[in-house]
Amino acid sequence: MKPTLNYHVRLFLIAFMLMGLNTISAQILVNAPEPADNPNLAGNTAWTAICAGVGGFNEYYVNISWAGTANSGNEFILELSDASGNFSNPVELLRVGDQNGNSSKEFSAAFSIPTDTRGQGYTMRVKSTDPEYTSSVSSPYHMYYMDVTTNINISADGSGVPPGMVCSTGPITLQVDNVPNPETYQYIWYMSGTPITGETGHTLNVSTSGMYYALIDYGNVCSGSGNTDSNIVDVTIGSGGQGIFINPPTKNILCAGETETLSINTTDPSWSYIWFKDGVQIPGATSSSYIVDASSADFEGDYQVEISASAICNEKSAAITMSNADEFTVTKDNAENMVLLPTQTKNLNIITTAISPTYKWFRNGSEISGETSNSLNVTQEGTYYAEITQSGGTCPGTIKNSETTTVVVPESFELITDYAAAYTACETTNIVLQVQTINAVLSDASKIDVTSDIATGFSYQWKMNGTDVSGATSNSISLTDTTENGDYTLEGTIGSYNATSNSLNVQLLTSETLNIQSTSTVYCSASDLVTLSTPTDLSGETFEWQKDGVTVNTTDSAFDIDAIGTYRLVLNKNGCSLTSNEITIQPLDESLITLDPSSDVVLPEGTSRTISASGGTAYRWFDASNNEISTTSSLNVSEAGTYTLIANIDNCEIFREINVTLLDTFKIPNVISVNGDGINDQWVLPNSYSNKADVNVIIYNEKGEELLNEYDYKNSWPSSSQAFPKQNMVFYYKIRNAQGILKQGTITVIR
Length: 751
Fold this sequence. Notes:
Number of strands: 67
Protein name: CHU domain-containing protein
Largest sheet: 6 strands, mixed
CATH class of the largest domain: Mainly Beta
InterPro entries: Ig-like_dom_sf (IPR036179), Ig-like_fold (IPR013783)
Number of helices: 3
Strand content: over 45%
Radius of gyration: 46 Å
Helix content: under 10%
Number of domains: 7
Mean pLDDT: 89
Structural class: mainly beta
Distance between the termini: 31 Å
Shape: elongated
Low-confidence stretches: 1-26
């Protein structure tokens, strides 16, 4: 006899299943978005990659579909990942709110990709807002917005002149020269038709002869439609050249005012010349010689000449170094801007490497009589500098001026304070406030930064909310506790001057952590509550429980939830929001509980079989009499009967039944006697063939007519109403499944 659960357990199981159905029907399942055909273009093929930008085109369609019910206020949002498929900062491509009543539960809509989209791993997903759901992500796609769709130009050193041929004795550099911000793109460079591995920048160092060209790399799908192929440059490297060099100059160390002519060792009327200083072309220097003038600022450097002509390779000479014999340094040893207070004297000082220097001091452009040392005491405002003359060395008489120093007498001072490090209100847990700038405000309201000169001369007092902070008398203050939150100003005093700074607001977040826990992470049904709680004492606190970022409870420290979603607790601490960890409550998925074997078990008599369950957090097994026989994930069975498993996923219970029968050892009978004595009156098959939904039993009469054709044969042929007009009648049978015929033969009916 087949064992059954008691009446109350059966009622519970039926109710549980009905509630599960109701829960599922109240949700929505949004599918991953799929590419769709653009109805505005010829053909009916969905896109497989996005190559936008050609002729300004940027219109693509996507198919959005779902199961379940979308509420009236719902919006479907299409989001794009980054080029690596990451959704940490998704880009919204599309938002649709007028399809919720769509009975087909799918629609196609147009979208455009952002103009900075370039990559081969972009994915998409769809979000619904009511109810909230996020689809799985789509397959990765090549997506490029091709903002350059015309031929690019390459030239030697980016000169902009696209030569058809370059001949050089040494390496040259080819460079893209007609694309704005060329370094923001990647390129494919080719030499003689073969891609150059690893070269993706906008410049290419060429040391091998060949035919060179480039194009912008829009991926292996889109690059061909970008139409960015460059001109071809035929480069020849390694010719012997003309052996040019710069004739050794009379001297390469010059004094101020001296000149030196540099000239090439050999000339030719067909040649063109270009002179370079420190690798940079000198404008207008196109003859076979060049005059280096020591009167020019920064004449020192390395000089080269390059020749070119139609019959020769471009050739550049070795460098000649020209130096300044008068080179010495002059450094002022004081602040650039200085404040002169009443009765004060300021000292200006000069440090120099000049040989046997002499000094002159100037105020507002006029020489100060009698001041000939390297320092100057100042009692007047003005702009000061020193003139230094080198009396010794190779070139005596060389003169250099120091940088200027501005000395001011202020009308007032301006104190500017700032955060010493990155600060975000209600996120930062500690911060230092400090003096950033001290400006001297002059009579004409202009300001000069005098921080370096006078910052240490001030007396300071920090104030919070207008009240002195005890002991805070330096130019900075360190704040580490939420009790120190408030508005801070700094008062500074120097001599008869008083200044009050700008106000800085400080809202530090507490360094404590806020944790929540739940009795389960799986929501079964309305009758099975999941409780969220926190060990933090919420008495007298202002807080809110949030589901998917929306407030759902503001009064209970332990909160019973009735819907799936992501939950967190937000606590107001000193004006800042302290946010807990998040707990995601998921719907019950009964398919997580699996059995091995997954179907009914047939045992040879005298043997046993282990049935294993997985996917749960706890298990209880019952026999046919509802006796609990195991609490582990597996059960060893050796007797026929119906066994019931109650598996838990957290607090949710899932029921499974498995039937165990004994394998019959008798053969298929070929004779039955239909005489009503209850013995051998029906054709009884072994249980490996009977009561099997996947086994088909067919019986034919002697004329080949079907008398029986059924699956799940119940050992019920012949029925009591069937007549057999002859003494011994022969019938034929076939037993088969989806793979083919299992058995076939004859049945003799004796009456």
